[in-house]
Structures are given as structure tokens and as C-alpha cells.
Amino acid sequence: MTAIRYPVAQNAEAAFSAPMARAARASEAEALAGAAVEFVSEAAGPAFESREAALSAYAGRLDDERLGRRVSIEPEDRYCALIEMAASPVAPRAAMKPVYEDGRRWPKPSGAATPTVWRLSIRYWRVSVAQPVLEAEPPASPRAERKTATVDAKALRERLGEPLRPLKPQQPLDIGLFEVRPPEAPHILMPDE
What we know:
Blueprint: E1 6-9, H1 12-17, E2 21-23, H2 26-33, E3 37-48, H3 51-57, E4 80-86, E5 116-127, H4 142-148, H5 153-161, E6 179-180, E7 190-191
Parallel strand pairs: 1-5
Antiparallel strand pairs: 1-2, 3-5, 4-5, 6-7
């Protein structure tokens, strides 16, 4: 099977029209771009009212199974797809309760269906812009902070929102998960079920 060769570009429009290069793997894309890359999928181009209009606009870029216009693109060029999406942002609906009436579990939907449009979705390697890494001093241990400062409610909430960090690195395990040392012979490892 041939691998898909995804475009390497700064954004979706550049990936569609003029990519820097094409690569199947992240390591290959990073070597071609000379920077770090990330794999993304984004919508590009205008929105179309129907799938047929979008297929006609992107002829030669997508598989087309319509009668008289059959096109099958090469496996390595399959980085584009058509997606159907809501035409405008949709407000979340209130939760529905089951009705269990007349053999139906859920009530009939109320209101009209949300209007949709068709857009081109392109998957590509986006070149990451390098952010300078600032050297920060390591945080003080929680035990040292406890001795020196009183903690108010706001500071406590902030501390609870931070990820937990160990005081020292975890030591490697010297025995397996299902092994145990018997108390009478600590030099022996016994399998435990």
C-alpha cells in the first residue's frame, strides 16, 4: 500500500495551492521544512451549498463517482476530503427527556434542520513557529512554601489547579508487578497470583 504524501506548509491555503514539499512521515516533513511540524486537518476554501458543486469546483483533487465524471485519484494524493458542516454556529439544544410513547423512545425533533454547507478538508504537516524557551527557576518545594507563607483561599485554589510534581524522581522497580519477596527469605522473588 502506498503511503499518503501530505503537503508541508504554513497554513491550509498554502498546503492546497503551493506546498513547500510533500512527506509521508513526520521525520521526513521536519527534514524538508527544517523546523518542527505538526499534523493537522483544517477546512480550506469557500463553502458550497451542495456536494456536487464542491466536487465540480475541486475536480481532479477528490474521488468523483458521479456518472460521466468518474475520477479516481492516486493513493498518495488522498490528503483532501469533503466535509459537511453547519452553515453557522449552532446554539446547544436543551436536553431531551425520553417519552416512551407509541413505541418511540424519544420525542419527534422540533424545529427545522440546521442548514449545512460543504467545505474542503485538507490534512497536512503544518510548520510550527519556534517559540523561545524561557529558562524558569524550578518551583520551590511545597514543604518549604508551607513553612514560610500563609495560604489564603485564592492561592490555595491556584495551587490545586497546578499539576502534581514529585519531590524527587521515581526510582526504578527492582521487582515485577506480580512478584513478591517473602519475609522469611527477602533474597528470593516468588511469583504472586
